[in-house]
Design brief:
Elements lengths: L1 H21 L3 H8 L17 H27 L10 H4 L18
Length: 109
């Protein structure tokens, strides 16, 4: 289960990075409106003048939600649950120390 969620997480991460990189910023719309590079060529695109931006932003929002969900799921699965430990100090193993007596010492005069 952990490996499947990790695989989905990595794929969604790469898709999210790629989707963000192909989006253009808000300043690019102003340049297209004033005839920069051919005079409003964005209206003839596949999604229309504003359709591509809403499609890309919705897709990135969905991928971001999936990314957060897989992140939280991986964090939940990675927690080691000790057997009913009530505090942190109870989960630390205690080493038994043995008191060592010094070797035979010569008697003082």
């Amino acid at each position: 289960m952990h490996a499947l969620i990790l695989t989905i997480h990595i794929i969604v991460c790469l898709m999210l990075v790629g989707l963000v990189l192909i989006q253009h910023g808000k300043g690019a719309d102003a340049g297209a409106a004033f005839g920069g590079g051919g005079g409003g060529g964005a209206s003839g695109s596949l999604f229309g003048s504003r359709g591509s931006a809403s499609f890309l932003s919705r897709s990135s929002a969905v991928l971001a939600a999936i990314f957060f969900a897989t992140s939280l799921t991986l964090a939940y699965f990675s927690v080691d649950r000790p057997e009913k430990a009530k505090s942190v100090t109870e989960s630390v193993p205690v080493e038994q120390t043995q008191e060592q007596t010094p070797a035979d010492l010569p008697e003082l005069p």
